[in-house]
């Protein structure tokens, strides 16, 4: 009887462990193909701001600033594997944010803001929260406290340099 239990246990447990390992590896594997995923700051109009976090894995990209305390010094960079249309949502975020999509020419650290969603409001509806859908392709997104874009004269077409 003990041998039968052990066999059932092994047959059921091994696939669960394998699936968990695959999910863990997938969630922690950087998806950013850019060698520039090491950025620590950005400059707009001669002013430089430090990133408080850089999201390069599937798990980091999904989490964003959910649950984080956002201040005027909070800046998160989202690094994507290639230029594309990347939607965001405000589920679980504690305060309003400016979400700024930017695109850079391949191999360059400088680009322009291509879409802005200023003063995006938090949403407590979970899966029912609406998506924020940009109309332009981007390879990076910066999230900052609401009002940052307006205070710094950021509009579509504003140049930005990543460091």
Describe the structure.
By secondary structure, this protein is an alpha+beta fold. It has one domain (31-162): Sandwich (Jelly Rolls). The protein is built from 3 helices and 10 strands, in the order αβββαββββββαβ. The radius of gyration is 20 Å and the shape is globular. Mean pLDDT is 85; it is low at 13-33.
Give the key terms.
163 residues, alpha+beta, Jelly Rolls, 8-stranded mixed beta sheet, two-stranded antiparallel ribbon, 3 helices
Topology at a glance:
Blueprint: H1 2-28, E1 41-44, E2 47-50, E3 53-55, H2 58-63, E4 75-84, E5 88-89, E6 97-103, E7 110-120, E8 131-132, E9 138-145, H3 148-151, E10 159-162
Parallel strand pairs: 3-4
Antiparallel strand pairs: 1-2, 1-10, 4-9, 5-8, 6-7, 6-9, 7-10
H-E string: HEEEHEEEEEEHE
CATH class: Mainly Beta
Query: How many discrete structural domains?
Result: 1
What shape does the CA trace take?
Answer: globular
Q: CATH topology, what is it called?
A: Jelly Rolls
Distance between the termini: 64 Å
Overall pLDDT level: 85
| Residue windows where pLDDT falls under 50 for at least 5 positions | 13-33
- Numbering strands along the chain, what is their spatial order in the largest sheet? 2-1-10-7-6-9-4-3
* CATH level-two architecture: Sandwich
Largest β-sheet summary: 8 strands, mixed
Q: What structural category do the secondary elements indicate?
A: alpha+beta
Number of strands: 10
Rg over alpha carbons:
20 Å
């Amino acid at each position: 009887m003990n041998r039968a239990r052990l066999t059932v246990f092994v047959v059921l447990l091994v696939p669960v462990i394998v699936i968990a390992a695959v999910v863990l590896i997938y969630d922690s594997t950087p998806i950013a193909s850019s060698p520039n995923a090491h950025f620590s700051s950005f400059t707009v109009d001669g002013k430089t701001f430090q990133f408080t976090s850089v999201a390069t894995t599937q798990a980091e990209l999904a989490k964003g600033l959910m649950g984080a305390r956002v201040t005027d010094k909070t800046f998160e960079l989202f690094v994507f594997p290639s230029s594309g249309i990347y939607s965001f949502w405000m589920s679980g975020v504690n305060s309003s944010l400016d979400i700024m999509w930017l695109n850079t020419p391949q191999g360059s650290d400088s680009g322009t803001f291509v879409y802005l969603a200023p003063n995006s409001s938090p949403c407590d509806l979970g899966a029912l929260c609406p998506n924020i859908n940009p109309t332009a392709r981007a390879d990076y997104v910066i999230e900052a406290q609401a009002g940052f874009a307006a205070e710094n004269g950021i509009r579509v077409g504003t140049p930005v340099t990543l460091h």
